[in-house]
């Protein structure tokens, strides 16, 4: 029992830290004591349940396997064997709990640690987003399957809800509602988990292939289609439908307004700014080069033209100066 | 299968088909002057790039003067209607060349008419 006491103290310390620094009113102390008492009781009950479930479900092979490991110290090797090392506090708590019970201490400790490890694995998997078969998960585990520290905190939370600062209003509904929602979330979980029921079948892809083989529609088909469209397209009943029609035709812009409609410039910024590679056809010295460098400087600062337009601009100048080459050579 | 073909044809036809809902469409210009202004605007748009580039050569202190003189001659050789200076912002409804507010492209008389009939969004008679 000495070992169990420090574990309880640690939980109480944690609880008091959560509740706040200064206000150590007598009421809060009372709450803590009650909380601890409840924790004690739940420890016992929980362990009994765990053990009962384990003895029913776990295969004898597992037990034999554990036993066969034999004299090797349980806690350390098992921790290091599996991937993620358990929280040392949890390990201590598990060992303390195991020691407090009358049954085979080593076995219970190993079983508790295995349970904790599995719990951690499932939480890791959920965090990573892997698909878990919830039914398997539930079948493996028991109902109250959280580590003792978490359990203690939860219960103290419930108690604090029950008694307000005035000590008058008791709100059992809130806590029960919380519990129910938690349970529901636990069971129903995510939508993608679980066996497929195969109620809805995917539409087969044959009609698509059939469409492609048909030749393009004849004029009669087009005329018929036009007639049908003219008949079905009723005049708009209200302003909203009118606006919808205008948007489809292109008269009205689409809201929220996209400033870049029609402007599909896929070029990166460096293609806009570093335009010197287009200047290779020009002479490297002289006034023309100077002029073209100024042109390029101006183009690089121009956000309104696309890269194509800028290139065209430079090419036009190239053509122009080539035509005037003879004139330039006279000078 | 016929339904699929029909739907495909409908999709293609919808683009071709004009709107069935009758709406006022301006198919005539108010007067010839408006038409000529419209033609000038079109030409100015077409030749805008060329004019910009030739002017860039002309208004230059780096290039040799002979080149600039050649550019001068070139720009005068372009069609007269291609210069943007010839565009006049006329009233869109009455083709009035004077008294036109740029924001609404309307002459003052038309603007007043619509504003008094509360057909100009956000326009109110001033009173202070």
Automatic annotation (TrEMBL), chain A:
Protein origin, superkingdom: Eukaryota
Record keywords, A-Z: Mitochondrion, Ribonucleoprotein, Ribosomal protein, Transit peptide
Taxonomic lineage of the native organism: Eukaryota, Metazoa, Chordata, Craniata, Vertebrata
GO cellular component: mitochondrial small ribosomal subunit
Keyword Transcription regulation: no
Main location: mitochondrion
PANTHER family in alphabetical order: MITOCHONDRIAL RIBOSOMAL PROTEIN S31, SMALL RIBOSOMAL SUBUNIT PROTEIN MS31
Location of the region described as Disordered in the Swiss-Prot/TrEMBL record: 1-29
Subcellular location: Mitochondrion
Pfam families associated with the record: MRP-S31
Protein name: Small ribosomal subunit protein mS31
GO MF entry, a single one: structural constituent of ribosome
Family the UniProt entry places it in: Belongs to the mitochondrion-specific ribosomal protein mS31 family.
UniProtKB/TrEMBL annotation, chain B:
Record Gene3D superfamilies: 1.10.287.1480
SUPFAM superfamilies linked to this entry: Glucocorticoid receptor-like (DNA-binding domain)
GO molecular function, one term: structural constituent of ribosome
Record keywords: Ribonucleoprotein, Ribosomal protein
One Gene Ontology cellular component annotation held by this UniProt entry: mitochondrial small ribosomal subunit
Gene Ontology biological-process entries: translation
Record bears the keyword Flavoprotein: no
InterPro entries on file: Ribosomal_uS14
The keyword NAD appears for this protein: no
PANTHER family: 30S RIBOSOMAL PROTEIN S14, SMALL RIBOSOMAL SUBUNIT PROTEIN US14M
Recorded family membership: Belongs to the universal ribosomal protein uS14 family.
Protein name as it appears in the record: 28S ribosomal protein S14, mitochondrial
Source species of the chain: Dasyornis broadbenti (rufous bristle-bird)
């Amino acid at each position: 029992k000495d070992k169990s006491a420090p574990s309880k103290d640690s939980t109480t310390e944690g609880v008091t830290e959560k509740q706040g620094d200064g206000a150590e009113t007598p009421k809060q102390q009372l709450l803590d004591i009650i909380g601890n008492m409840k924790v004690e009781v739940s420890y016992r009950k929980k362990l009994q349940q765990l053990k009962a479930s384990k003895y029913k479900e776990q295969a004898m092979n597992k037990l034999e396997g554990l036993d066969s490991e034999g004299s090797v110290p349980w806690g350390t090797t098992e921790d290091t064997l599996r991937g993620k090392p358990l929280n040392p506090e949890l390990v201590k708590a598990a060992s303390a709990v195991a020691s407090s019970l009358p049954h085979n201490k080593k076995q219970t400790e190993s079983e508790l640690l295995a349970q904790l490890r599995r719990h951690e694995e499932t939480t890791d998997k959920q965090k990573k987003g892997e698909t878990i078969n919830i039914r398997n998960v539930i079948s493996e585990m028991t109902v109250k399957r959280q580590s003792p520290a978490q359990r203690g905190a939860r219960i103290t939370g419930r108690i604090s809800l029950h008694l307000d600062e005035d000590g008058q209003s008791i709100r059992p509904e809130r806590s029960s509602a919380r519990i129910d929602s938690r349970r529901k979330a636990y069971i129903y979980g995510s939508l993608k988990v679980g066996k497929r029921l195969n109620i809805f079948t995917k539409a087969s892809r044959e009609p698509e292939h059939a469409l492609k083989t048909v030749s393009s529609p004849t004029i009669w088909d087009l005329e018929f289609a036009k007639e049908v469209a003219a008949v079905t397209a009723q005049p708009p009943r209200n302003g909203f439908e009118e606006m919808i029609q205008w948007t489809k035709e292109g008269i009205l812009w689409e809201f929220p307004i996209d400033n870049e409609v029609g402007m599909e410039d896929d070029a990166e910024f460096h293609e806009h700014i570093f335009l010197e590679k287009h200047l290779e056809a020009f002479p490297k010295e002289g006034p023309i080069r100077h002029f073209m460098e100024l042109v390029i400087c101006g183009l690089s600062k121009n956000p309104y033209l696309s890269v194509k337009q800028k290139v065209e601009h430079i090419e036009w100048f190239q053509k122009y100066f080539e035509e005037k080459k003879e004139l330039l050579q006279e000078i | 299968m016929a339904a699929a073909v029909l739907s495909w044809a409908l999709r293609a036809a919808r683009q071709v088909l004009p709107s069935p809902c009758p709406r006022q469409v301006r198919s005539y210009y108010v007067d010839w002057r408006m038409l000529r202004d419209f033609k000038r605007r079109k030409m100015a748009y077409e030749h805008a790039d060329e004019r910009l580039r030739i002017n860039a050569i002309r208004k230059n202190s780096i290039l040799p003067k002979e080149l600039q003189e050649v550019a001068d001659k070139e720009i005068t050789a372009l069609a007269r209607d291609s210069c943007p200076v010839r565009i006049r912002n006329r009233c869109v409804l009455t083709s009035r060349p004077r008294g036109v507010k740029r924001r609404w492209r309307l002459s003052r008389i038309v603007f007043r008419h619509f504003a008094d009939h509360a057909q100009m969004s956000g326009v109110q008679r001033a009173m202070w």
